[in-house]
């Protein structure tokens, strides 16, 4: 970072209420959407400064309205210490600052926990799941219908399927013939696409506040005491089904292989990791779930994995325009790992359902 850029970021940071005597601003974390910086001050206070990617989140006013509403509600409805609650630092009464360089926001820095990129153990996944379950529990009662869709139809699998069909038909890169097996995999499971969105529309499943990106690195973890501290990265907080959050956590956490692993023999659905996630998540929020949610929660893992694989395959057919790639065929490899996981989960669906029932205190 050049001195000019650093000085400009220091000036932007000091525009936020209470942020003063900034001594350094440095790049922070491994996020791919927003630009994130650690702000350090003479008084030893630290903050997180972010430049919001307003090409993806085009309505910054409503985006920040979501985040302020949710963070304030959690702070008021949790027993956690206030210093462990994420808080938006205002600037002249507003939740973000619009500058020539873009839109910036500032959060308090939470020192009690760290973001972990990979947690290969059942214990680590359990702690992550407890964090997201606690997030859901704290937001039980929040008026989800007031939330703005920061990314419309983000987990509307029926809409995702239509986009997939269009990508197959258009075949802009001439790749369709080489991936017919993967195309057939998606179309053979079209029946999955409307199960959750249809149940939400019919009122069979309740709308809740959902995080929609429940990867393990979006929970700050106290690695000394192995406990969740708080959930971060709230840009995709919207109205949806709790199946999405449970499902995406299992999708990203219960696989034995990397997301872009080429050797599919290394990619397997881990029953141990799934059970750990279910225990942590359901243990925190289970008493608030409806019977319909309990009965379908395991299906959320199958659906989110299927949807993610379909999105990777769609992007591959369209020329890799959405997901960042670092090598030829990476999105296709990503799609194949997801489809392998779907197959494994389908074979273990009864185990998955019974495990949720167990931790929800239900018996057949």
From TrEMBL:
List residues of the Aminoglycoside phosphotransferase domain: 25-255
Q: Which branch of life, at top level?
A: Bacteria
Question: Pfam families, per this entry?
Answer: APH (PF01636)
Q: Which InterPro entries match?
A: Aminoglycoside_PTrfase (IPR002575), Kinase-like_dom_sf (IPR011009), Pseudomonas-type_ThrB (IPR050249)
Protein name, per record: Aminoglycoside phosphotransferase family protein
